C-alpha cells in the first residue's frame, strides 16, 4: 500500500515539489450518529399541555431531531381530518444562543414541512413502514429539521457544549382539537426524541489524509415560521413579511370557516409577486401537479395544501443545490393574490436560509440578489 504523506500545517507552505493535498469533504470524514434524546408519556386532556423545554444532548453537529409518537390504550372515537399530526398543538426548537430555528408551528404544519423540506429520500412521513394514522392509537414520526442538505451537511450546527444545549418546546393538543368524538379511554402518548448528528472527525484519517472537521459554511442556518391571514370571497392580496434571507420553500395551508382544509379558499388563478415581478400566474391544477411532481415516492396532495418550492434543483424537493432559492432583502415585497371562491384563512409557512458571510476560505455557491451565482 502506498504511503500518503501528511499535509503540511495550514500556516506552513508545502515542501517544494510536493502538492498540497485537499481535505476530504466533511461528509466523508464524519459519521452519522444517532442516540436517544428524551422520552415522555402524556395523556391528552381537556386543555393543552405544555411540556417543559427538553434539552437535546450535546454531540458533534446537530442534523435533526426525530420524534417517534405512539399511542396505546385508547378505544373508539372519531378523529378530525388532520389526525394524527394534530395531536401536537405546537412545537419549536431553540438554538444554544437563544435564536429560534423552528418558530413554534402546529403538528400538521410540521408534517407539511417534512414533505416539502425533503429531509429524507422519501419525503412523506405517512409512508413510514410502521405508520398508523387511524384513531384511537396512531403511530407516526415527525422530523424537526436543522440540516438543510445531507449530501454536504450544509446547515448542520455545532452541538458540543453540554452547558449550552438546544431546547425543544412541545405542547400537546386538547382532546377536542384532535377528535370530534373523544375516545374512551383516551390513549396514552409515548413520545421519544432521537438525536440525529454528525460525529466530530479528527484532522486526518487512518491513512494520513487531511479531513474537513466542520460542515461547509458552519453557522448557516435554516428557519421555519408561520403566519395566518384571513381570506374573503373575491379578490385578496396577502403579503409575506418573512424576508431578508434566501427563501427555500413556501407551503400554504388553506382552511374554510369550519377549520377544514379547502382548496376553494386558495385563489384561482393564483399569482405570486416578487419585488413587482410576476413569478407565477397559474391555475390550481398546475400548482397541484407541480407540487406532486417534486415529491419523491407515492404521495397524494392533501386538500387545501399548495406549495411554492425553490428547493428542487435536481428535480425533487430536498438535498438540493441553492441555485433556485429566492433571494430577498429586508425591503423585498412578496405577495400572493387572486380571487378566492370561499372565505377562510391561509396559513403561510416560510422556510428560509440565512448564510454566514461568504469568503474565499470557505466558498459556497449561493445565488446573489439578482439570482446569479455569488463569486
Question: Mind explaining what this structure looks like?
Answer:
With 375 residues, this protein is mainly beta. The protein is built from 4 helices and 20 strands. Helices cover 8% and strands 37% of the residues. The strands form 5 sheets. Strands 1, 3, 7, 8 and 11 form a 5-stranded antiparallel beta sheet that branches. Strands 12, 14, 17, 18 and 20 form a 5-stranded antiparallel beta sheet that branches. Strand 15 and strand 16 form a beta hairpin.
List the keywords.
375 residues; mainly beta; five-stranded antiparallel sheet; disordered N terminus
What is the topology?
Elements: H1 26-29, E1 32-42, E2 49-55, E3 61-72, E4 78-79, E5 88-94, E6 100-105, H2 107-117, E7 139-145, E8 157-158, E9 167-172, H3 175-178, E10 179-181, E11 188-198, E12 221-231, E13 234-240, E14 246-256, E15 270-274, E16 277-282, H4 284-293, E17 305-309, E18 326-327, E19 334-340, E20 344-354
Antiparallel strand pairs: 1-11, 2-9, 3-7, 3-8, 3-11, 4-10, 5-6, 5-9, 12-20, 13-19, 14-17, 14-18, 14-20, 15-16, 15-19
